[in-house]
């Protein structure tokens, strides 16, 4: 199938499909006129790639996981599981950092509110 049909069937944009191919996540054959042609399996592969992107993985990480589906083996599965665990740990650290940042911001909001409340109760300068 050509790229437009794949986009329609997968729900991915043509631009996304071209990006996936650029990144090595998706392959096609080319006609003599240069048009991309994809196999039926590409629809399922794109759904898988999109789930991985939705999980916060980068295209580089997704590329590392694809051998698990392209060449299923215990070794490839173990490698994919280890890589996903590393990504989960990375996300957990990022979440902890965001919580610390939010707590810092909460403290600044408290200080700013106290300052603002002090403005309300401060005597007005009458200029006399």
Which descriptors apply to this entry?
2 strands, elongated
Summarize the SSE layout with pairings.
Elements: H1 3-10, H2 14-22, E1 29-30, E2 36-37, H3 41-54, H4 59-65, H5 67-70, H6 74-121
Antiparallel strand pairs: 1-2
Outline the structure in words.
The protein contains six helices and two strands, in the order ααββαααα. It starts with a helix and ends in a 7-residue tail after the last helix. The protein is elongated. A two-stranded antiparallel sheet has the order 1-2. β1 and β2 form a beta hairpin. The chain is mainly alpha-helical and 128 residues long.
Q: What is the string of helix and strand elements?
A: HHEEHHHH
Helix content: over 70%
| Shape summary | elongated
Question: Numbering strands along the chain, what is their spatial order in the largest sheet?
Answer: 1-2
User: What is the terminal separation in angstroms?
Assistant: 84 Å
Beta strand %: under 5%
Query: Whole-number radius of gyration?
Result: 26 Å
Count of distinct strands: 2
- Structural class by helix and strand composition: mainly alpha
**Please, how many helices?**
6
Oligomeric grouping of the chains: single chain
